[in-house]
Design brief:
The complex is a heterodimer.
Chain A: E1 7-12, E2 15-20, H1 25-31, E3 55-58, E4 65-66, E5 77-79, H2 83-96, H3 114-122, E6 140-141, E7 146-148, H4 158-167, E8 173-175, E9 182-184, H5 197-202, E10 208-210, E11 223-228, E12 237-243, E13 246-252, H6 265-269, E14 284-287, E15 290-293, H7 296-313, E16 318-322, H8 328-342, E17 347-348, E18 378-382, H9 386-389, H10 391-402, E19 406-411, E20 423-426, H11 432-443, H12 450-455, H13 460-472, E21 477-481, H14 482-486, H15 490-502, E22 506-510, H16 516-521, H17 533-541, E23 547-551, H18 555-558, H19 562-570, E24 574-579, H20 584-587, E25 591-594, E26 603-606, E27 612-615, H21 628-638, H22 648-658, E28 690-695, H23 709-715, E29 719-722, H24 724-729, E30 737-742, E31 745-753, E32 761-765, E33 784-790, H25 793-796
Parallel strand pairs in A: 1-5, 16-17, 16-23, 18-19, 18-21, 19-20, 21-22, 23-24, 24-25, 28-32, 29-31
Antiparallel strand pairs in A: 1-2, 3-4, 3-5, 6-7, 7-10, 8-9, 11-12, 12-13, 14-15, 14-25, 26-27, 28-33, 29-32, 30-31, 30-33
Chain B: H1 6-14, H2 26-37, H3 42-52, H4 56-65, E1 77-82, H5 85-89, H6 92-103, E2 109-110, E3 116-121, E4 133-135, E5 138-140, H7 145-157
Parallel strand pairs in B: 1-3
Antiparallel strand pairs in B: 1-4, 2-3, 4-5
Helix pairs in contact in B: 2-3, 3-4
The chains are: A alpha/beta, B alpha+beta.
């Protein structure tokens, strides 16, 4: 049989339109520039036909048809504007508005509301409905970021289907039935989602609005400035909506092959820190033991003099930590100032790495575009908590799973996306290397050792299934996360991953926040003979450095061993910090320079794909603070350099000369894995005590997030996750205060009883600056066993302990 | 924390085997849970969700859709009055007023003595009895105010 032609031609309002076979009539009209009003259909989800607004008349069809669900056929004759169609659109709008309160003057959606716009364009302007409207309590708060107004809802189901189809978190649902149907969470509880902001964007009415943007501005008040989110490292494109020099809200900026039209809730609601009242505005210098405010000139003269002094004592007595929060241009200047002028090879942006860890031995980033993930038929997560660390990547994985891909996770605890995981390989802490090595060997024909796998805590049958699928998979991908790279078996994981790469797997190194990849590209990495970040910290503790220069990082809370950083600080004569806030590192520093945020800078950044993107300054930033690049140029001038840059473009041009292929919009994809990593096949010793596992969480209380009330609220108090059985044997109840101790070091945290952590382990989220878990961690001991006990609140206030708020 | 007995949990776990999709086992599973507890408290809905590996929001959504599931503790007996077309044409409205007066509550509530939960219902597939109602698992009709009184008396005693 002959193949049917690839296109069909139909007539819409008298115009011939040729479209690909399978296109719906609504899309055919859209392509022809003919507007058909619609509410429920959103082209990221299959059509539903719920709102009935997109009616058209099709010749030879008895009734009006919903154009969003009707597939265009050859020779179809469609009318979208005849009186019967217009009449149906008008009546449907009248019907949709029966229960709508028409409270546009106080509704945040006003001015950007499809219901308002379409009522204006297609409605009759009057209603025959004189009866009582549906009456609901309004508005209802559904947690920290979402506000629900059920009276405004037209039951288009976009938000419900977003949770089912796009995010997979099923956060909102329809309840009751018929006339009483309402969208809500179960029992109106706070919504549990990492993506709920998107339901606000796609709500075609004002039923779902944002708590952070509530009554802040009208859309026409805002200037939309294109920028790039600086939180997780995926570099999602955003609009910063600015009103009166204030970022009123952050919205997703459509980039089809990156974040598409979506954003995670950290990206969408985690911006209030930009305007926090305690932003630093004056340089601080330590005098007589106290940090006191000073002028820029005094601070810069001091730092320049000390750098020059150190240079005279010999090269390599200055260390630079940080860069992930800076633009490419800032990082380029950072490298130039310290390599060329100060003459030190000790630069590193990877300040949360353990000495010798696998993180330090491999280029970070995705080896292929994010948009290629849905084409993979097998995804393997290794120590990568994807929804917590890189949420937008999860949306691509969800698409892959919906296309039939299998998802496997090698992790020391269950992941929140467990429903979508074919094979859960929950291993004993530290055994990820052994498990992945067995898998890599098996893919290459070696029989897996069932006994070893069982001792590692995983089911050999699941491994066998994974191996069979890996052999047959199309474009299999392995995502190696921070937990695996920083764990005791990091190099074993890389060794095994390299073998999987040879067998056809694409290996992604899911590591780095903000502009970490850009910092690496610009050379904020150890030069010849240079030390890595942890080596710098170790050397500094031995007195090997005159100056530690820290930019946009907080080693006191981020370094995986608080004591190591404390020793480095103690034995370094001058610690300089660029930051927005007085962080724990800043409080102990000698000079603190107030810096600007990404929203206050022009320049470029790179995401984990190596994609080079431009950002624009949206607001001026507090008077007195300066951009990192500007600060570095001032230092350069004081150190005798005669550089002149007329703006970020000129710095970028210089950077392009140094880094081939650096073009806005281009990808600087990291190379495939290539290294000689030792494989350590040994399983870690079993422990009878509780083993502490830590991990990144999307919502935490770090220096930025703690100053974003919505995010701090979503994060909740610092907690320790305990299996109910372990809690019961210690007399711990959910929400009680618990003391978590390693030797003399202890933290007081809220116990969270959950089966999301296996028995024998406790999980503590990182990123709570007030109660930093790195006080319990030690570089010498990659696997930490802890003791846990219930305490009463009165005892917790005693000396030497920290009370969780 | 599990609330359901182990036998009921096993019964629910086995249900998906009968269906092509896990979701299809949800309504039978909710009946099992309601048989055990008498109604469906939030914890129980979560437990059913865990047992079937379904989102608990979906389980709650479905439970709220069907009139046979209780999200609050019900009365001892369930009175479902059909108000669909055949019953409406045969005087269901009149019967509703009568029930409201006798039970001293509007539809959707429980009588003060806790004996009856009174609800309006979509078609109960007994149009030949119109106007009709169902009390627990028994159907009654064609109803008159007098027969309604007799039926209520009978159940009040049980």
């Amino acid at each position: 049989m002959a193949e049917p032609p690839a296109t069909v031609t139909l007539t819409i309002d008298g115009r011939a339109v040729t479209v690909a076979r399978g296109t719906t009539v609504w899309h055919a009209a859209e392509q022809a520039g003919i507007d058909i009003p619609i509410f429920c259909y959103l082209d990221r989800m299959p059509p539903l036909g719920a709102c009935r607004q997109c009616f058209v008349r099709v010749e030879k069809m008895a009734r009006l048809q919903t154009s969003c669900t009707l597939v265009a056929e050859e020779g179809m004759v469609v009318s979208a504007s005849t009186p019967d169609v217009r009449g149906a659109q008008e009546r449907n709008l009248e019907f949709l508005l029966i229960n709508h309160p028409l409270d546009c003057p106080i509704c945040d959606k006003g001015g950007e509301c499809p219901l308002q716009d379409q009522t204006f364009a297609y409605g009759s302007g009057r209603s025959r409905f004189v009866e009582l409207k549906r009456d609901f309590a309004k508005p209802v708060s559904l947690g920290s970021v979402l506000v629900l107004d059920r009276e405004r809802c037209i039951l288009c189901w976009r938000c419900v289907r977003f949770g089912e189809i796009v995010a997979g978190d099923d956060a909102l649902k329809g309840f009751e039935r018929g006339f009483q149907t309402e969208i809500n969470t179960p029992f109106t509880q706070p919504v549990r989602s990492k993506f709920i902001g998107n339901t606000i964007s796609i709500c075609p009415v004002g039923a779902l609005t944002s708590r952070t943007y509530r009554f802040q501005a009208r859309p026409w008040d805002n200037d939309a400035v294109p920028s790039v989110c600086n939180h997780c490292g995926l570099g999602c494109t955003v609009w910063l909506d600015v009103r009166d020099q204030t970022v009123a809200r952050v919205r997703p900026r459509e980039t089809p092959d990156l974040n598409d039209i979506w954003l995670c809730d950290l990206g969408q609601f985690g911006f209030e820190w930009l305007h926090a009242k305690d932003r630093l505005t004056r340089p601080l210098v330590r005098k007589n033991g106290q940090l006191v405010e000073t002028t820029w000139d005094e601070a810069l003269d001091l730092v320049a003099a000390r750098l020059a002094e150190s240079r005279q004592r010999g090269a390599g007595r200055v260390g630079v930590l940080g860069g992930a929060r800076l633009t490419n241009e800032d990082n380029f200047l950072l490298r130039r100032v310290f390599r060329e002028i100060v003459g030190t090879p000790h630069l590193d942006h990877r300040l949360d790495a353990r000495p010798g860890s696998a993180s330090l031995q491999v280029a970070w980033g995705l080896r292929g575009p994010l948009a290629a993930i849905p084409e993979s038929s097998l995804l393997l997560l290794v120590g990568c908590d994807i929804t917590e660390e890189y949420p937008i990547a999860w949306l691509r994985m969800k698409q892959a799973v919906d296309h039939g891909a299998q998802l496997y996770a090698i992790h020391p605890k269950p992941l929140e996306i467990h429903r979508f995981i074919t094979g859960r390989l929950i291993h004993s802490p530290g055994a990820e290397g052994v498990v992945l090595a067995q898998i890599a060997n098996a893919v290459r024909g070696q029989k897996p050792d069932a006994k070893v796998l069982q001792e590692a805590g995983v089911d050999p049958a699941v491994v066998a299934g994974l191996v069979a699928r890996l052999r047959a998979a199309a474009r299999p991908m392995v995502f190696i996360g921070k937990n695996a790279l920083e764990g005791p078996a990091g190099t074993t994981v890389l060794h095994a991953a390299q073998r999987l790469q040879a067998a056809g797997c694409m290996i992604h190194i899911m590591r780095g926040k903000g502009n970490a990849v850009g910092a690496a590209l610009m050379g904020v990495l150890p030069g010849p003979g240079g030390w890595t970040a942890p080596e710098m910290i170790q050397q500094a503790a031995r007195g090997a450095l005159d100056v530690l220069y820290v930019l946009g990082g907080d080693p006191a809370t981020e370094v995986g061993d608080a004591h190591a950083w404390a020793a480095a600080r103690e034995h370094t004569p001058l610690v300089v910090v660029h930051d927005l806030f007085l962080t724990a590192t800043g409080r102990d520093a000698d000079v603190v320079l107030p810096a600007l945020t990404y929203a206050e800078k022009h320049g470029t950044v790179c995401n984990l794909e190596g994609r080079v993107q431009q950002i624009e300054a949206a607001v001026r930033g507090p008077a007195g603070a300066r951009g990192d690049g500007a600060i570095l140029l001032e230092l350069a001038a004081r150190l005798g350099a005669e550089w002149s840059y007329g703006g970020w473009e000129e710095i970028f041009a210089d950077a392009r000369a140094a880094v081939p292929g650096l073009e806005i919009g281009a990808f600087r994809t990291p190379p495939p894995l290539q290294g000689d990593w030792p494989a350590n096949g040994a399983l870690p010793a079993r422990s009878a005590d509780l083993v502490l596992i830590t991990g990144e969480v999307l919502f935490d209380r770090g220096s930025m997030t703690a100053r974003s009330p919505a995010i701090a609220d979503l994060a909740g108090p610092p907690s320790v996750w305990v299996h109910p059985a372990d809690a019961a044997s210690r007399g711990l109840v959910d929400g009680a205060l618990a003391q978590l101790s390693v030797g003399a070091a202890g933290l007081v945290l809220r116990a969270r009883l959950t089966e999301e952590v296996p028995p024998g382990r406790v999980y503590v989220p990182r990123g709570y600056d007030a109660v930093p878990v790195n006080r319990l961690l030690s570089w010498d001991q990659p696997l930490v066993t802890v003791s846990l006990r219930a305490i009463d609140a009165a005892a917790a206030a005693g000396p030497g302990s920290e009370v969780a708020p | 924390m599990p609330v359901l007995r182990d036998e009921a949990r096993d019964e629910i776990r086995r249900l998906p085997d009968h269906y092509e999709h896990r979701q299809s086992a949800l309504i039978p599973a909710l009946f099992v849970a309601q048989r055990e507890i008498g109604w469906l408290p939030p914890d129980t809905l979560r437990e059913v969700a865990d047992l079937l590996d379904l989102p608990s929001s979906e389980v709650t959504s479905v439970a709220s859709f069907y009139r046979f599931f209780f999200l609050e503790p019900p009365g001892r007996h369930l009175v479902l009055l059909c108000t669909n077309l055949a019953c409406a044409l045969n005087g269901a409205e009149h019967i509703r007023h009568h029930l409201e007066a006798r039970l001293e509550i509007p539809p959707g509530q429980i009588t003060a003595d806790g004996i009856f939960t009174f609800r309006e219902s979509e078609c109960l597939a007994a149009c030949y009895l119109a106007p009709m109602m169902m009390v627990d698992c028994d159907r009654f009709g064609p109803l008159t105010p007098k027969s309604v009184d007799e039926i209520l008396e009978r159940y009040r005693a049980r």
